[in-house]
Amino acid sequence: MHVIVHGGAGSPPASPATRQATLTDAAEQAAKAERPMEAVLAALRPLESDPAFNAGVGGAVQSDGEVRTDAGMMTHDGQTGAACAMSGVVHAADVARTVAAETPHVLLAGDEAVAFAAGSGVETDRDLTTAETRQRYERANPPDGGPADHLDWVRAHFSGTDTVGAVATDGDRLAAATSTAGRWFALAGRVGDVPQIGAGFYADDRGGASATGEGEPIARFGLARHAVEQLDTYGPRQAAEEAIADFEDATGGRAGVIVLDRAGHTGAERNTAAMQTARR
Ligand code: GLY
C-alpha cells in the first residue's frame, strides 16, 4: 500500500517533531490495511483523536462554543460519502465512509448525521473541546464589525494549522479522505470545503487528492479535483504545484494539497508557511 498523509496547512505548529512522529505512525498503520478505503480511515483516526491536529478532539470551536466536525471520502471508482456539522463526533471520516457504503446519498448534515453515526456504531456524544481550546474560546474577544472584520480577526488570532487528510493506493484501487473541525469562530453551522466533493477531497481513475486551508476559496475553486485533473499532464509532484499556483492566481487564498496517482507516486504543495506530510 502506498500512502500519503497531511496534518494541515497553515502557520508552523508549536511541536513539529511530535506531530511529525504522529503523522509518520499514522502512515505506517495505514500501509498495513488491506484496502485503500481502510487505509485512509486508519491514517485519519489517530489524527482525529489528537488535539495537536484540527479535526475531532481539540478542533476549532465555532462562534457559539460548539465544535462541529466534517469529513469526506471517495474511491477511484466513484464510491463517495461525506458528513458535516456534527457535534460530538470525533471520527467524522468513519461517518463519511458509512454514508458511502450504506446509503444512496453522498452527504448527511447536522443532528441527523450524528443520529446516523450513532445508529451505525460510530461513537457520538464526545466532548470535542480540551482545556486549551475552552480557554482560547473563553478568552477571545471577537470584534463587533461585519463578517469581513470578523474573518480578518480570525486570521490574526487563530492562524494554526488546518484539517487532516490521506490518500492511499494498492496500485489498483485508490481512496482519498479529509477530516476537519473547520475554522475558529466561524458562524455556527458553517461548513467549509472538506465535505464537498472536488473541494476538500477527490478521487478518480487518475488518482486522488486531499486539500487543506481556507475552506471558502478552496470550495469556490474546487481544489482537490483540479489537482487530480493536472495528472492528465503532469506527475503528482508537479500536479500539486500547478494546482496550488492556479488556486492562488484564481482566489488569492491560502491552501495546501497532497496528490497520489494509482502507481503510488506522491506530490504535495502549499502556499502557506507550513504543511507537514508523511509518506509510506
Ligand atoms: N479547510 C477546512 C475548512 O475551512 O473548514
Topology of this protein?
Blueprint: E1 2-10, H1 16-31, H2 36-49, E2 68-75, E3 80-87, H3 92-102, E4 107-109, H4 110-119, H5 131-139, H6 147-157, E5 161-162, E6 164-169, E7 174-180, E8 201-204, E9 207-213, H7 215-221, H8 223-229, H9 236-251, E10 255-261, E11 266-270, E12 274-279
Parallel strand pairs: 3-4
Antiparallel strand pairs: 1-5, 1-6, 1-12, 2-3, 2-7, 6-7, 8-9, 9-10, 10-11
Bound molecules: glycine (GLY).
The site of glycine has 11 residues, from strand 9.
Question: What does this entry look like structurally?
Answer:
With 280 residues, this protein is α+β, with helices and mostly antiparallel strands. The protein has a single domain (2-279), classed as (Glycosyl)asparaginase (Glutamine Phosphoribosylpyrophosphate, subunit 1, domain 1). It is 36% helix and 26% strand. It has helices spanning 16-31, 36-49, 92-102, 110-119, 131-139, 147-157, 215-221, 223-229, 236-251, and strands spanning 2-10, 68-75, 80-87, 107-109, 161-162, 164-169, 174-180, 201-204, 207-213, 255-261, 266-270, 274-279. The strands form two sheets. Strands 1, 2, 3, 4, 5, 6, 7 and 12 form an eight-stranded mixed β-sheet that branches. A four-stranded antiparallel β-sheet has the order 8-9-10-11, covered by helices on one side. Helix 3 (92-102) links the parallel strand 3 (80-87) and strand 4 (107-109). Helix 1 (16-31) packs antiparallel against helix 2 (36-49) and helix 2 (36-49) packs antiparallel against helix 3 (92-102). The chain is globular. The termini are close together. The model has no long low-confidence stretch (mean pLDDT 95). Glycine binds at residues 162-163, 180, 182-183, 192-194, 212-213, 215.
